[in-house]
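Spend some time on the protein that follows and explain the fold to me:
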Amino acid sequence: MDRARRIACIVGFAALLPGVLYAQQPWSIGARAHYGYLWPHHSDMLILVEGHAGAAELFMEREVKGDRPWHRAYGNPRYGVAVIFTRLANPDHIGWCAGLMPYLTLPLLHGDHCSFGLRTAWGVGYVAKRFDRHDNTRQIAIGSRINTAIQLMPEVRYHIAGADVHAGIALDHWSNGSFKQPNLGLNFVSLSLGASIALGKGRVGPVPEGARGIDSTSFERPEREFLVVCSGGISEDGRPINGQRSVFVLSGEAGWRKGRKGSLACGVDIFNKGDLATTDDALNDAPRVALTQVGVQGGGSLLAGRGELLFRMGVYVITPAPDDAPVYQRFGVRYRCGKHLLAGVSLKTHFAAADHWEFGIGYRWD
């Protein structure tokens, strides 16, 4: 194991250790093996695919306290942190990749011993070999070493006497959100199998309806909600030497809660993207207001008290120049900070390729 890999392992163990030592609630620790391949989501990515790859993951997690209505609705979600390491079967042009990701696992179906849920993880990632126009021109996926690491993993969990067996299908994504080109992103699709063991007396079981300990004053989403969000970010489009440009976004949405776990929403987005001027020569000297796009979008969210995990699909109805795709997607998180204020972070994409980050604040009303 080379020096860089040893450092990555030490950092991973250091990140996991404090929670094990100082947690007041029972924790579980576990390991998971992945086996899959680098998904060539764009035809240009085929030159980086050299075979199947494995990955190793360590994780630490515990159940929520069970004192919120949304805890009970999901049958007590788990939260934790995971460290993943893989080489993606391409040591010459990608090298090794690692991710340190806090996560939340939401049980969607659960029984006495078996459950099916969705793990969503979002943290920091590292790619050892980035694009270099002199030494590594085949690395057309990532232009930076420090990136965002995201994981989506549906998993089945079976509980046996203080231990859990896990099996899932994972999508791990490394991207800088088009902060620096190239940024097609790395997508590792894998099957996974792992196990974890509880360090305490056992799991905190789901709290029955009306039981003591449920906080009846905790936040619950209204049946209908309206919101306006102002966001900003940085992106770079076209060639890696074009430079970074600002992005401003104004979004308006109407949403409807469906039970305690989910909601549906639709709305309008207005994007003002400086990097559009680099994609069409006719826009080189255009005023900034001419670089404005309008889209209509809709989608759903998984609700978690004041927070939500959101997914939106949109289509451009006005654009001064063709973008990478006629449709766009948005993945992100939002948190309601008070009666009317909210904050959020989202990644806007054109299918599997990132377009830009959105860091926003907003106002909501019923």
